[in-house]
Here is the input.
Amino acid sequence: MIGGHPCLAPIHAIPNVSKVVDVGCGTGVATVQLATLFPSAKVYGLDISNVPDVAQQMAPKNVTWVVGDVLDIDTERLDKDRDNAQGDSVMSTEIFTPGGLDYIFGRMLFLGINNWTRYFSTAARSLSSGGIMEHQDLDWKFYRVNTSECLSDDWEWHRHVVSAAETAGLSVHAGSAAALHMQKAGLEVISVQQFEFSFVPSSKTPDSQPMGRYVQAKLIPQYPELLRKMLGAKGFAGEELKRLTKTALRDLASEEGVHQKYTVTIGRKP
Here is the structure.
């Protein structure tokens, strides 16, 4: 979808990269790729859950896996009392130290971050001068192929999902709002690129076809469970939940090239 590369940041322009973190590393695939790109750096894969054993086994020696939530880092307390941080987590004492990171990578965090101001502030504090942050994420709306014509505004189930997301404190603009968050955190935005995260392959957008096939094979089968959690939080259950789920799967397959906007935002610390 983005040219077969895990990242779009000008990583070769970052001098002497010594510490990198993949936030919300999930399966650990991107972490392993980053460790290969930066063989001399210490690369952390951070997630709230353990990565699969297969990723741990294939990871280069410069990878360290850490279980934790980046939002748990209390930067204000740490800045006031740096001398008494011995009992703090690895996140605070090793990874997100002031000016200690050269590259921060994160993608598909839209279901996990409910305080974007805190997240980007923590990241900016932790970047070295000239360090790079790359954020890849989705907005929640769905569009017609190769256009910005929104389809999901007319979808009942989607309105309920968006309402559930907002109730949970999640942003429905996790991709497109990243540039503003970076600027507010004091980073210089150097690049914003948008791609089609396709749910159905389309001949009109050849570059998005692999993503469409991946979504059909891997993500669509998981969608009923996602909808159960999101719609269940709004009180939907039983036959009504089944009806909304059936409608959602129909809408998502309603035409070729149905997609979400996937935004890659890159910022640099002055």
Notes: The chain has a mean pLDDT of 93. Residues 157 and 248 are 6 Å apart (CA to CA). The two ends are 30 Å apart (CA to CA). The beta strands are 19-23, 42-47, 63-67, 101-107, 127-138, 188-198, 259-268.
